[in-house]
């Protein structure tokens, strides 16, 4: 436990981070918590309010109700159903990567593949036409600033404008799907929540909007970072790439070690539901703690020699969270990365990073890799 200058605590050990994520003594900072803060202005920003209504920022019983209604949206049957589409999307993106490599000898993997695969996959799942994908990526990148610990006024302004664009886009998408129902997930949500809130259509509309918006944008940056890092670690050493080609059954192990070694989310905040003790430190109700995912995964008590990238480590990480707020999209992110890496290893035996990835250094919470140049 490390005290922060603003009165919160950083939590660094694997055990303590896991305890916060799993225990009912810890809550996410919802609307009720925000209203109790001495200076609520920080939480009244448009973009912040928008995210506080999503699954990641609501607690029981509302969270329990929505999660039960969703079930497991990416169970094995769903993923198997998506397999042909994901394989087709990956193949098409790699065709574009190959063209760039042939023309220039070098290509940006993030812009050519990593950012496009998640948005095209979720677009396929929800029935969002490809012509809208670039706009979704644009406002998702800007809206994410609202989730930073200390966003600047400029960042909050960008996030606020992105929120307005997001509302307009998903509002129109839902209206169109109501008018023309299809055989898709969004149509199913509309039917379920309209029936659940039969006497309160505004409540139904809020839930449908927040679900559609959140599930669409939540995985875009994190999945892109996972995919970029996994490809980097798979290809940066020729011997490792060759070994993976000979042992494709260990691609899943590569993905898990990537998630442990360099997680796409650095920090997540929780608040104490009551007076409690964490790692020997007494904490009052409403105290904020910041879980440091990377520090937890590099705790040598959980993962010996944590700074060594070891595909066969069989270690542990909590990169997708744990407990009630475990990431809904984790199976899909793994699924996308597995398909992409398998095809890359097969099609590009000499693919190598041309240098380290470039990060958006203005972000402290959600890491964003802006570029990874590759050559073959």
TrEMBL record:
One of its GO terms (molecular function) is iron ion binding. It comes from the Bacteria. Keywords: Heme, Iron, Metal-binding, Monooxygenase, Oxidoreductase. One of its GO terms (biological process) is cholesterol catabolic process. Belongs to the cytochrome P450 family. This is Cytochrome P450.
């Amino acid at each position: 436990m490390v005290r922060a200058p603003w009165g919160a605590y950083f939590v660094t050990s694997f055990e303590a981070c896991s305890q916060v994520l799993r225990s009912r003594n810890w809550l996410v900072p919802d609307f009720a918590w925000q209203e109790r803060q001495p200076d609520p202005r920080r939480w009244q920003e448009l973009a912040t309010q928008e995210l506080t209504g999503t699954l990641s920022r609501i607690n029981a019983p509302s969270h329990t109700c929505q999660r039960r209604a969703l079930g497991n949206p990416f169970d094995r049957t769903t993923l198997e159903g998506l397999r042909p589409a994901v394989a087709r999307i990956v193949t098409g993106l790699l065709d574009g990567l190959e063209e760039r490599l042939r023309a220039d000898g070098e290509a940006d993997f993030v812009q050519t593949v990593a950012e496009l695969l998640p948005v095209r996959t979720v677009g396929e799942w929800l029935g969002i036409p490809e012509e809208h994908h670039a706009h979704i990526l644009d406002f998702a990148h800007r809206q994410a600033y609202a989730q930073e610990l200390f966003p600047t006024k400029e960042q909050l302004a960008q996030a606020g404008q992105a929120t307005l664009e997001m509302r307009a886009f998903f509002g129109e998408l839902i209206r169109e799907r109501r008018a023309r129902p299809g055989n898709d997930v969004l149509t199913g949500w509309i039917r379920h929540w309209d029936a659940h809130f039969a006497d309160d259509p505004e409540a139904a509309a809020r839930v449908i909007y927040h679900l559609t918006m959140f599930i669409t944008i939540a995985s875009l940056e994190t999945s892109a970072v996972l995919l970029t890092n996994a490809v980097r670690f798979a290809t940066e050493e020729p011997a490792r790439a060759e070994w993976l080609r000979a042992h494709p059954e260990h691609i899943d192990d590569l993905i898990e070690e990537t998630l442990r070694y360099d997680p796409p989310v650095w920090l997540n905040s929780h608040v104490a539901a009551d007076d409690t003790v964490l790692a020997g430190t007494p904490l009052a109700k409403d105290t904020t703690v910041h879980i440091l995912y990377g520090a937890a995964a590099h705790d040598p008590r959980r993962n010996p020699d944590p700074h060594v990238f070891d595909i066969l480590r069989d270690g542990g990480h909590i990169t997708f969270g744990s407990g009630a707020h475990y990431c809904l999209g984790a199976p899909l992110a793994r699924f996308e990365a597995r398909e992409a890496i398998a095809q890359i290893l097969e099609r590009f035996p000499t693919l190598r990073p041309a240098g380290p990835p470039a990060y958006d250094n203005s972000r402290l919470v959600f890491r964003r890799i802006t570029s990874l140049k590759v050559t073959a």
